[in-house]
Amino acid sequence: MKSGYKPTFANNAIENYIFATKIELDKIKLKPFKYNLDRTERQGLKSLRSNKDIVIKKADKNASTVILDKQTYLNQAMKQLNDNINYTQLSEANNLGISKTIENKINQLHLKGYVDDTTRNYLNSNKEKQTALDRSRASTLKYRNKSRENIPLCFITKYNPMVKQLGKTIRKHWHIIEKDETAKQLFQRPPIIAYKKQNSLKDMLTSSKLR
Fold it and tell me: Which domain of life is it from (predicted)?
């Protein structure tokens, strides 16, 4: 059975602004989306994505895409990991040794005139070294809460050239927020628009995970 419980609104001004803005956004008429790939090309992309015998990756250079045989890819990866001539497995990070090596390289560049005094002092400063080398991996990867003071509302959507004056639309009823003391303190700046990046063919085909 339904309990019949109805939560109270957090703030009437904010709720009214969201409701009024939704009505304005519903008035925007968009033309049906059309693919720039025909049916055969879309089926080809789907076939490539589902192929378990190949690996599709972004190349390190030239922003290109490469297709490799999966087993060859795995063999080359294991070959690199098992290379005891060029690589040595470390039981722990040698931060002090790495710091000294970096400092020597910087000083060599300075002597050759590639780095000026200001840059050398900045790169060799203890503060900059501490941020990277003197922290443990666990400390570096630890989540840190960022200050959320004075952060504006953010309207996130995918870019569509057919939508005109979207910023004007979401700010049309901003006066509702400005007239409420509590809402005005929470959101001191008008909302901004953030556009999501549309997926390219490379994004559709490549993946950071090995399937």
Answer: Eukaryota
